[in-house]
Amino acid sequence: MISVAGYELDDGLAYDAEHNLWVQRLSAAVVRVGYDPLGAEATGDIVAISLPAVGSEVESGAPLATIEAAKFVGPLPAPVGGTVLAVNDALVGLPGAINADPYGSWIVELGGVSGEDMNGLVSGVEPVSRWFVDAVARYRAQGVIAE
Which fold has domain 2-142? Predict the structure, then answer.
């Protein structure tokens, strides 16, 4: 874990910088996806989530799940494409777990993920730190998160 702009980030993960999602590689072509701490805060209290069906195919950028929260209602874009292997059903009954523990509250596991999709994510201590500092500053300037 690294501390960046007041947030604890897992530097062993890759991040979708546009949608504030983390991606954990479980094996060569299998990943787990969740919200990063900034995404969870910027979204506000999450009150509902609908998850895709296991076995469904998703393309990178296509809707992966639907979130209802204090500051956002809408689709959560997939950071990478693949086949839905598992969903975290516990989140349906307790969606606020994402706000309370973003890294412990994974959303889906995807299989058949390409290296090309993974290459589009931000990873490594320095790139993650630079991206996150910029994202926090931008969100604060926009009033999305508190100073």
Answer: OB fold (Dihydrolipoamide Acetyltransferase, E2P) (2.40.50)
Question: pTM of the full predicted structure?
Answer: 0.94
- Local confidence pLDDT in tens for the 147 residues of the chain: 999 998 999 999 999 999 999 999 999 999 999 999 999 999 999 999 999 999 999 999 999 999 999 888 999 999 999 999 999 999 999 999 999 999 999 999 999 999 999 999 999 999 999 999 999 999 999 988 877
Tell which phi-psi region holds residue 124, choosing left (phi > 0), alpha (psi between -120 and 50) or beta: left
- CB-based burial label for 13 (10 Å; 0-12, 13-18, 19+): buried
**Beta-carbon neighbour count of residue 38 at 10 Å?**
22
